[in-house]
Structures are given as structure tokens and as C-alpha cells.
Design a protein that fits this description.
Blueprint (H helix, E strand, L loop, with lengths): L7 H14 L5 H13 L6 H7 L6 H13 L10 H16 L7 E5 L13 E2 H11 L3 E5 L5 H17 L2 E6 L10 H12 L7 E6 L12 E4 L3 E5 L5 H5 L3 E6 L3 H12 L5 E7 L2 E4 L1
Parallel strand pairs: 1-2, 3-4, 4-5
Antiparallel strand pairs: 1-8, 3-6, 5-9, 6-7, 7-8, 9-10
Helix pairs in contact: 1-4, 1-5, 2-5, 3-4, 6-7, 7-8
Length: 285
């Protein structure tokens, strides 16, 4: 039976130390070497482990392996717990071969005329957003309270790629059926999208507003297939993507699941109204 003191925490810590010390292709060989030294029987020492192991362990690496096993009671002066040994080395192999965690990326729009700010401080918001949009294969959400026709022209090739991939597009904004001149930029953006032969048939538009209290939204989110998302300060406007100082994050980790859950919940909200364009006018449907 495995050592009774080998709790999940100690198992993980020991496996992690082994995975960081021994190349994954040599984990089985180092384990077999330890078993051989024990059952030969021979003294399990740093020197013996280095001499017989299938990889060129340094003295420090061999010391780490033996010390970790001794610390957890897997190896003692007169005993080697074979079952526990297999357990920690098996766990080490899993840790060593698991996919590296996805990394999030801080992105920014840096004004070109501000000499105090270096363009290389962050990755470009515009370029990363284009890549995010192009990656969509199933569902693409563009959520922005403000839009502009010039932004549509910037994003159009990436949007075409997304719909060519098979993605449906959802645009969530405001000021489509109300707002007078305040909504002119939004209406121009949505009109261009709906009239685009590559986009119109694959795009559904919404506005989020409480008609009584005028409660609305100010969030800026671009979500591709529920696995990659932009969240930040930039609206989907030419200034947000190219002129203003804007900051945001491209999320690739499980945070995107929360954004996806929010978007799904919005579909049930009484404040979200589907909008269509009919005879040059926007109407709720």
C-alpha cells in the first residue's frame, strides 16, 4: 500500500519536484534505477543513482530526488515503498507532459503622438483583437456601447474570416432604435455589417437598455467561441482601436467561461432587445 503519510498535497509537491528535476523521458529509468538499487540490494546513494541512472543527473539533481523521497518516507535506510514510488513518478510524468497553461496578454492602444509612452510597453490591442476575431469558428460576440464605421472598415477582413470559418456574429450595443444623433455612429456600424454580403446573413444585433430607467451598459467585450476574449477600456471605434490610450487583456484561460456565462444570461434578460433593419430603419423584433 502507498505510504499513509502521502497526502494529496505531499504527492503533488513530490511529483512536481521530480518533474522539474528529471527529464520526462528518463522518469521511468530513474524510478527503475531506485528499485534496482533497493532490491539488489545496494545502498541508495547520490553517487549510485548518478552512476546507474539512464540520464546524466548532476549531483544536485540526484540529491533532490533522494531527499524528496526521504522527506515523504517513501525511502528510508532499510525500506523503499514501491507502490508510493510508482505513484509519485507516475504523477510526475503527468505533470511533465500536461499542456502548459494558457497565458493571458495585456494589450494597449498607445497614442503615437505621446512621446512619453513607448509603443513596445504592451502588445498592440488592435492586432490582438484582429487575431481574436479571426480565430472564431462557431460564435463571435462584439459587445461595445460605442461603435464606428471606421472601426468596421478596420475589422471587416477579420470578420469575413470568422464567418468563412463558420462563426455566427452577435453585436450587442445601444442607441439603435433610440438616442437620436447620439446613436448615429452605432447605427452606421451596424448598417455596414448587415449590408455586408459576407456578414449580414450571419449577424444578429441587439441593444441593451431599460426603457424606463435608461439603465444600460458600459462593458467592452469581444468573445470568440467561449475560449478567447478581449476585455478592456476600448470601444469598437476608430479612436479606441487606434488613437486613444486604452488598456485591456486578452483572456485565454478559464476566465472566458465567466464571460460566456454572462453573454448567455443576457439572452434571457428583459433589457436585451433584438434589433433588425427594415426599410432603412432599426426596429425591435
Amino acid at each position: 500500500m502507498p505510504n499513509s503519510d502521502l497526502t494529496p498535497d505531499t504527492l503533488y509537491a513530490t511529483a512536481e519536484a521530480l518533474a522539474e528535476t528529471v527529464p520526462v523521458e528518463h522518469l521511468d529509468g530513474v524510478r527503475a534505477t531506485l528499485e534496482y538499487l533497493h532490491h539488489a540490494p545496494r545502498n541508495i546513494s547520490i553517487k549510485a543513482l548518478r552512476n546507474l541512472s539512464p540520464c546524466a543527473l548532476t549531483e544536485q539533481e540526484a540529491q533532490i530526488v533522494i531527499l524528496r523521497l526521504e522527506t515523504e518516507g517513501i525511502l528510508t535506510d532499510d525500506h523503499l515503498d514501491d507502490c508510493a514510488l510508482h505513484l509519485v513518478f507516475g504523477a510526475a510524468r503527468l505533470l511533465a507532459t500536461e499542456d502548459a497553461p494558457l497565458e493571458n496578454t495585456v494589450v494597449a492602444t498607445i497614442p503615437y503622438d505621446d512621446r512619453a509612452l513607448n509603443q513596445s510597453m504592451f502588445e498592440a490591442l488592435h492586432d490582438n483583437m484582429l487575431s481574436l476575431i479571426r480565430s472564431a469558428e462557431d460564435d463571435l460576440v462584439l459587445m461595445s456601447p460605442f461603435l464606428s464605421e471606421r472601426a468596421y472598415r478596420r475589422l471587416r477582413p477579420a470578420l469575413h474570416t470568422a464567418t468563412d470559418n463558420g462563426a455566427d456574429v452577435r453585436v450587442i450595443t445601444r442607441y439603435l432604435t433610440y438616442g437620436g444623433d447620439d446613436g448615429e455612429y452605432n447605427r452606421k456600424f451596424v448598417t455596414k455589417v448587415l449590408e455586408d454580403s459576407y456578414l449580414g446573413d450571419y449577424t444578429t444585433c441587439y441593444e441593451y437598455i431599460d426603457d424606463e430607467t435608461w439603465t444600460t451598459f458600459h462593458a467592452k467585450l469581444v468573445l470568440a467561441d467561449n475560449h478567447t476574449a478581449y476585455l478592456g477600456t476600448a470601444n469598437i471605434t476608430h479612436k479606441g482601436l487606434g488613437d486613444n490610450l486604452e488598456l485591456g487583456v486578452i483572456f485565454r484561460d478559464r476566465t472566458t467561461e465567466q464571460f460566456a456565462a454572462l453573454v448567455d444570461a443576457l439572452q434571457e434578460s428583459e433589457l436585451l432587445h433584438q434589433v433588425a433593419r427594415d426599410s432603412g430603419q432599426f426596429i425591435r423584433i
